[in-house]
Amino acid sequence: MQQRQPAYPENLIFHPYNIMLFLLLFGLTALFLALTIGYVYIRVTMGIPPVQLPWLFLANTLILLGSSYTMIRARQNYLDDNTAAYQRNLKRTIWLSVLFMAMQTVAWWWLFQMNHTALNSSTTAAFLYVLSFAHLAHVIAGLPFLIIFYNTARKRMVDPVTVLVYFSDPEKRLKLRLLTVYWHFLDVLWIYLVVFLGVNTLI
């Protein structure tokens, strides 16, 4: 009698990892929707002018899009068993994420120094800082997982046998897919924030 092969965990919709990611993304979506709705409500009811969106936020959008692209490439390299390209694209994603965090710090400094937009200068300024910092906090939270993936790949991919074992691990495949989804979500979330704040400067 032929035994039935177990399904890969990544194919199970109700796998605990999938559920945890879904709950996390749902919670983040609710949080940022509440913040942006609160921003609009305060502007409408109190007649507060919007804070100007720094151009560095637009540049950071390109950086984050680049990190999302390299993350896509890393996952595809994993599925193609391309060791060198997989490690290379993971490293690029890490460096682009670090660059994004550095540029965000510069953008906040520019807001404070050039426009004198301090955290307590207006309600809209406070919302701008809170929204961008909350997003950055979740980029920082995902960075250690990227580093772990890269270090694990660099240490374990030393010969054909270890490479085969690494690429055939269904749990790693699942975690990499979830990390990729998380990174794309942060990308979409940032684009939403930039568009939302940009539109508010025109209204």
Detailed description of the structure:
- With 203 residues, the chain is mainly alpha-helical.
- It has one domain: Four Helix Bundle (Hemerythrin (Met), subunit A).
- Helices cover 80% and strands 0% of the residues.
- It is built from six helices and no strands.
- The longest helix is centred in the C-terminal third of the chain and has 34 residues, at 123-156.
- Mean pLDDT is 83; it is low at 1-9.
Q: How is the topology of this model organized?
A:
Blueprint: H1 16-46, H2 55-79, H3 83-113, H4 123-156, H5 160-167, H6 170-202
Helix pairs in contact: 1-4, 1-6, 2-3, 2-6, 3-4, 4-6
Quick take:
Helix content is 80%, strand content 0%.
Number-wise, the strands total: 0
CATH topology: Four Helix Bundle (Hemerythrin (Met), subunit A)
CATH architecture annotation? Up-down Bundle
Distance between the first and last residues' Cα: 70 Å
Q: What is the CATH H-level superfamily?
A: Cytochrome c oxidase, subunit III, four-helix bundle
Task: Give the helix tally.
Answer: 6
Spans where pLDDT lies below 50 across 5 or more residues: 1-9
What's the mean pLDDT score? 83
Shape: elongated
Q: What is the string of helix and strand elements?
A: HHHHHH
- Quick one: CATH class? Mainly Alpha
Look at the helices and sheets and give the structural class. mainly alpha
The figure for the number of domains is 1
Largest sheet: none
Strand content range? under 5%
Helix content: over 70%
